[in-house]
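New to this. Help decode the following:
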Amino acid sequence: MNNVEILRYTAFTHDPKGGNPAGVVLDASGLSDAEMLAVAAEVGYSETAFVTSRDDESRTFRVRYFAPSAEVAFCGHATIATSVALAERIGVGRLTFDTNAGEIAVDAFIDGETLRATLTSVPTRSTPVAEPVLDETLAALGWSRDDLDRAFPPHVAFAGNDHLMLAAGSRERLADLDYDFDGLRSIMTREGWTTVNLFWRESDERFHSRNPFPIGGVVEDPATGAAAAAFGGYLRILGTGSDELTIIQGVDMGQPSELKVSIAEADGRTRVSGGAVEM
């Protein structure tokens, strides 16, 4: 593994000090699953993306994502980071990623003087969370039902991975995050959730979000593209909010990020856009 080139990009920002860092390995064709997991653990970011095969002519890439402790089916911020890294080398335009969650189309483009990418998720779905599971999760978070915004019923939403959607009743509640790491990880592992998407509505077009990610071995993710895609599908099911919205994440961690979300298709496919810069 000493010959593996590991790039480091931060996504959903144009400031190397902001956003969500991701490792990117553009040639992982010779790596085993165990070696990819070891690289991800060594890098230490919430996810590292590995391009295990590629066809530059058709711009089609097999991509896998590993957190420090496990493989995940899909990762939004690492997709944006990988897309920008590829576009810097083979040019802007449509990229197709074959992931464990399905085929993901990504459009890399120049916006002013910056390079950005827009991913289109797999079809989304969203269903109410079981009441006993909700109570168990709130206890692990140190929250109560009184802390929730009742305009947004708790759901489990999917856009490649499952994410629990919980709406905070105030910005102060969202800012005060101190949870039972092992307890929440146990619940999430049992339920198959990748993150818990905690959010607060500033307006119908602007939301603030935090994403505990204990099953990935980190306390919190500073920008979660997969959860943003699932969130877009969740809002569509509820018939709430705008078709075009901005999610602000990572502020409470000192890593401010901005994710642009739009509902792309009738089946709930969601577009998530952002920039990325090499660190």
Observations:
- Residues 7-120 form a domain with the Diaminopimelate Epimerase; Chain A, domain 1 fold (CATH 3.10.310.10).
- The longest helix spans residues 76-90.
